C-alpha cells in the first residue's frame, strides 16, 4: 500500500482483526454485486469505502423517483439514468481508487456463471426468486461464497452461503427451487426505508469478513429482522443431502 492508502484505510489497519494484511486482501478482492437498488446501495457504498479493489455492479433498471426513498446510492439529478452508471459515479466519488465495472444488463444463468467465476465474493441484492436461484447455482458451481439479503415491508433477512467447504447449506437448501413462494415487490407492498440500509450494511460486513478471513460468518444461519419491534431471530440451517443444487448426487 502507498502512503495515501495507509491513511485512507488507517482505521481498518488499527483493528487487530484486519491490519495491513487484511486490508491488502480487501484491495486485491473482486466483489460481484447483483442489484443496484435498496440493498445494493449500502452494499456498494461500504465495499467501496472499505477498499474492495474491484466491484462489478449488475442491474438492468434505471433510476426512478420512487427509488430515492431508500436507494441511497442514487440522486435526484440522476433519475432516468441506468442504476449501475448512477451507482458507479457515487462510488467513484467515495473512493476513486476502486475499479468499478458497471454492467447495465439482466444477467441470465449463463452470464452469471461467467461473472461469478471471476469473483472473490458475490452479493445477491435482487428481489426475485428466479434470479436468486440462478445466482446460487452459479456460486455453488464456482465455489464462490454468496451473501444474500432480502427486505420487504418491515421484514428483512440476511444469510451467507459458502460452498467452499462443501459442508454448509446453499440457498436452494432453504428455499427449494421446485417449491412455490409468494413473490412480493416494493412497488405493490412497500418497504421501510432504513430496513434496506440495515440488511445491506450487514451484507457488506459479511462480505468484508469473508474476504479478509476474519470472524465467524453467517454460514448455516439465517437472520430474520422484524423492524416493527427491532427484534432479530436466528435460525440454524443445514445442508440438505437431497438439494437439487449442492446435494450429493
Which spans of ≥5 residues are poorly predicted at pLDDT below 50? none
Distance, first to last CA = 46 Å
- At CATH level 2, the architecture is 3-Layer(aba) Sandwich
Residue share in helices? 25-40%
The number of strands is: 8
Query: Structural class of the helix and strand makeup?
Result: alpha/beta
Assembly classification: single chain
**Helix count, DSSP H or I runs of 4 or more residues:** 10
Strand order of the largest sheet: 3-2-1-4-5-6-7-8
Describe the model.
There is one protein chain. With about 250 residues, the chain is α/β, with parallel strands linked by helices. The protein has one domain: 3-Layer(aba) Sandwich (Rossmann fold). The protein contains ten helices and eight strands. The chain has helices spanning about 5-10, 10-15, 20-25, 40-50, 85-95, 110-115, 130-140, 170-175, 185-190, 195-210; strands spanning about 30-35, 55-60, 100-105, 120-125, 145-150, 155-160, 220-225, 230-235. It has an eight-stranded mixed sheet with strand order 3-2-1-4-5-6-7-8, sandwiched between helices. A hairpin with a 4-residue loop joins strand 7 and strand 8 (about 230-235). Helix 4 (about 40-50) packs parallel to helix 5 and helix 6 packs across helix 7 (about 130-140). The protein is globular and about 50 Å long. The termini are far apart. The model has no long low-confidence stretch (mean pLDDT about 95).
